[in-house]
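quick one if you have a minute, typing this from the bus. theres a chain ive been looking at and ive put its sequence and its fold in token form underneath. please have a look and point out which stretches look like helix strand or loop to you. anything you notice is useful, everything is just below.

***
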Amino acid sequence: MSTAATHHDALPGFTPVSALGPKRAADYFALPEGEPVELIYGRLVVSPSPDFLHQTVVGLIYEWLLAIARTTQGRAVIAPFDTELADHSIVQPDVIYLGRGKRSAIKRHLHGPPDLAVEVISASNARRDRVDKLVMYAEFGVAEYWIVDPAERQFEFLVNRGGKFEVQPQRDDRYQSPVHAELDFDLAAFWAEVALQLADD
């Protein structure tokens, strides 16, 4: 089982944060609603609007997780939705999933880590999702992290083991989460549905 690097000094091209930035949750929540901003280690980071491919993939993942949440009494939430990991770090994963035991963690927003965070990468956010958020999600206890590359039609499935993410295998175009038994994902069917949604008439 391979381990994804989750320490600042182990990530190529990553400049370690010597000190947290000055912004905190109070600054973040004082911003106008709807701003495409995340608070990452005390620094406000603005994201451009996603494209159609990105939103198609996000929407289909959300639909799938929502169907599961209905049967497990869990919750599935699509961005924009605040996930407060710490006073200095508030992010908006593309999709989050919480099992039944964490339903009460959601009030106006989520306090603490989700059971699953899903990020769909694009040219503008790839480094943030593969580096900055990888470190952050491992540090603050996100149990499972999926990184989706729609351009390459690839999923990376990562499970948090003691503060480090381990890459999980895919077998026969399927992924069975070792953490959440209800998450049994048919990758071939998913990408076929993406292609169908993107096809011109």
Summary: Residues 5-16 have pLDDT under 50 and may be disordered. The chain has one domain: 7-198.
